[in-house]
Amino acid sequence: MPVLFPPALQRGQRVAIVSPARKISAAELAPAIETLESWGLEVVLGESIAGDHHQFAGPDDLRRRDFQQQLDDSSIRAILCARGGYGTARLIDGLDFSRFAQQPKWVAGFSDITVLNSHLLRLDCASIHGVMPVLFHQEGGELALKSLRRALFGEAALPLQVPPHPLNRPGTATGQLVGGNLSLLHTITGTASQASFAGRILFLEDLDEYLYHIDRMMLHLHRSGQLAGLAGLVVGHFSQMRDNTVPFGSAAEEIIDSYAQLYGFPVGYSFPVGHEADNMALVVGSEAQLVVDAAGARLTAR
Predict the structure, then answer these.
(1) Going by DSSP bridges, is the β-strand pair 106-109/267-268 parallel, antiparallel, or unpaired?
(2) Residue whose C-alpha is closest to residue 129's, from 233, 284, 7
(3) Which of helix, strand or coil describes residue 284?
């Protein structure tokens, strides 16, 4: 099925910031609001920004109601998820995307927001995997923020090029981009939010996981057949990995390689995607080309 792309943002339009997962404060968002306004956008803060329920930005029904309101409000042209954490999967089955499908808008975020990125692709709609407002001004994130702006305003994506990596597997792949946080992709397997990987370029990243968890999740993707039809694989940041007292014996990238070796698709490592400052925006559902050769790896969105 062709993927539907929401209209590019225009100056003067309204965008909403919501928090479908962990709680956040308006004060933490103040720098991001200033940035969005400098882009010529009018910022609306959702009800969940003031929500506070243990770890969450309000109870599930409040966060769900807030997100639904932004989906249905025709004056809101993009929904920016303030931060990740945990909680988006608790809302997804209660959301109604019928009005959204008639007038799609950009939804942007990463990490826990992988649930939304995948769910929207399952509905044949593109979304943005990119830096979230709480992280707009982290040191070293200037290009990441620029790439988000380019994606929202419909400007050509900047090609991503990384140097050679010893685990790279050469080749050329074309296909739609799919992916995000490995833990979330594993969690939504078998649910209504699982998007097919077949014929697509999968990108992966993760944070603060035990190495044996990475192996367990990659094994699951392998055993469930999700890796079998990949066109290509892009490996981003695997940050702050943890190990047991008795070491697992392989780094995250080596674990991924042990499964990639079972297939013939090209693989590129060390892409600037994930839980580091250089988290470049990727449009999930966009057509892309991955080239891996002696010069390194290049990902170009079409």
Answers:
(1) unpaired
(2) 284
(3) strand
Q: In sequence order, which residues have a C-beta less than 8 Å from that of residue 223 and are 6 or more positions away?
A: none
From-to residues of CATH 3.40.50.10740 in the chain: 14-152
What strands, in cross-sheet order, belong to the sheet with 282-284?
42-45, 14-18, 76-81, 106-109, 127-129, 282-284
Letter for the amino acid at 228? Answer: A
d(CA 133, CA 25): 11
Q: Annotated catalytic sites, by residue?
A: 111, 205, 275
User: Where does the chain hold its CATH 3.50.30.60 domain(s)?
Assistant: 160-301
Q: How many angstroms separate the CA atoms of 48 and 9, rounded?
A: 23
Q: Say how far residue 302 (Cα) sits from the centre of its chain.
A: 18
Cα separation, 22 vs 24, in Å, equals 7
Which residues lie below 8 Å from residue 92, measured CB to CB, with a gap of 6+?
115, 116, 119, 192, 193
The arrangement of strands across the sheet holding 201-207 comes to: 160-162, 296-301, 287-293, 171-181, 201-207, 232-239, 267-268
105 CB-near residues (< 8 Å, 6+ apart): 6, 7, 71, 76, 77, 78, 79
pTM: 0.97
The CATH class of the 14-152 domain is alpha beta
Q: What is the pLDDT of residues 196-244, one digit of tens each?
A: 999 999 999 999 999 999 999 999 999 999 999 999 999 999 999 999 9
d(CA 205, CA 275): 8
- State the CATH class of domain 160-301: alpha beta
Q: Which residue has the tokens 């209504």?
A: 192
